[in-house]
Design goal:
6 helices, five-stranded antiparallel β-sheet, Alpha-Beta Plaits, 3 domains, five-stranded mixed β-sheet, 12 strands, 274 residues, Sulfite Reductase Hemoprotein, domain 1, globular, alpha+beta, Sulfite Reductase Hemoprotein, domain 2
């Protein structure tokens, strides 16, 4: 079968998996949603499904009508793919999340341009998270990128406004609290390193000391979930692209046919990737 076309539950029926090529591969426009609804009504069973990789599946399409359905979706900027040994849809936290330490949507878009529909030794997953909350499951992907901010707290500047600790803008993980002496106390261990507190502090008592990305490799979901291991720490956005390129290149050199990246890490160790 062609890429993006999966076997369906009924005889002669298939599932069509698509992702958006514009404006961003984990976002859909209103026009694209209308097209998906029309294709599901016209060719499928009037439902669609969102995959864990934020692609869209349209089930129950007659195999002989797949070409027509794909043509309609492509006119709306939706492309079929992300199956078999192809790189899965690279996705990231939304651009409008308040807790993005560093916006990661453009990085994901660039990685999709580089690796979307590119065949690998086996399925390859890449995820990007805007902070350590890791909503996009970066620690259970073959390659995970997590943005983080190291904050600096200067208590003498604090004006005791409470914005950093009280709803609705206060710390979501209670890494900041006010002591009995009415001083702001920061817990490094609890901090999600999103840096949002430095954005809301009106007195610059809390500031962003530095921002960067950690890169993890060797994670995986499925029957036996595997947590990724730290590969590079606190690199820039440009370095993220360079390091991901290096990891992918080494993966293609070292992997046996059908071997996932996390299996290569298990077999050879993270040092094999440089």
């Amino acid at each position: 079968m062609r890429h993006g076309v999966l076997r369906g539950a009924g005889r002669g029926k298939v599932v069509l998996r698509v992702r958006s090529s514009q404006p961003y591969t984990a976002e859909l426009t209103a026009e694209q949603l209308r097209t998906l609804a029309e294709v599901a009504r016209k060719y499928g069973s009037r439902v669609v499904h969102t995959t864990p990789r934020q692609a869209i599946e349209v089930p129950d399409i007659p195999e002989e009508l797949v070409g027509e359905a794909v043509a309609e979706l492509e006119r709306a900027g939706l492309v079929a793919g992300a199956s078999g040994r192809l790189t899965r849809n690279v996705f990231a936290c939304s651009r409008w999340c308040l807790y993005n330490s560093i916006p990661v949507a453009e990085l994901a878009e660039e990685l999709n341009r580089r690796y979307g529909e590119v065949e690998m030794p086996a399925k390859l997953t890449i995820s990007l998270s805007g902070c350590s909350f890791s909503c996009s499951r970066s620690r259970t992907s073959d390659i995970g990128v997590i943005a983080r901010t190291v904050i600096r707290v200067e208590r003498e500047k604090c004006i005791k406004c409470g914005l950093c600790v009280n709803e609705p803008l206060g710390c979501q993980v209670d890494a900041l609290r006010v002591s009995k002496e009415e001083q702001v106390v920061w817990s490094r261990e609890r901090c999600a390193q999103c840096g949002f507190c430095s954005n809301v502090c009106p007195a610059s008592s809390i500031t962003a000391e530095k921002r960067g990305f950690d890169i993890y490799i060797g994670g995986g979901g499925g029957f036996y979930p595997t947590e990724a291991v730290l590969f590079r720490e606190f690199v820039s956005a440009d370095e993220v692209l360079e390091e991901v390129d290096r990891v992918v290149e080494r993966y293609r050199e070292l992997a046996e046919p059908g071997e996932r990246l996390f299996r290569v890490v298990e077999r050879l160790g993270v040092r094999a990737f440089g």
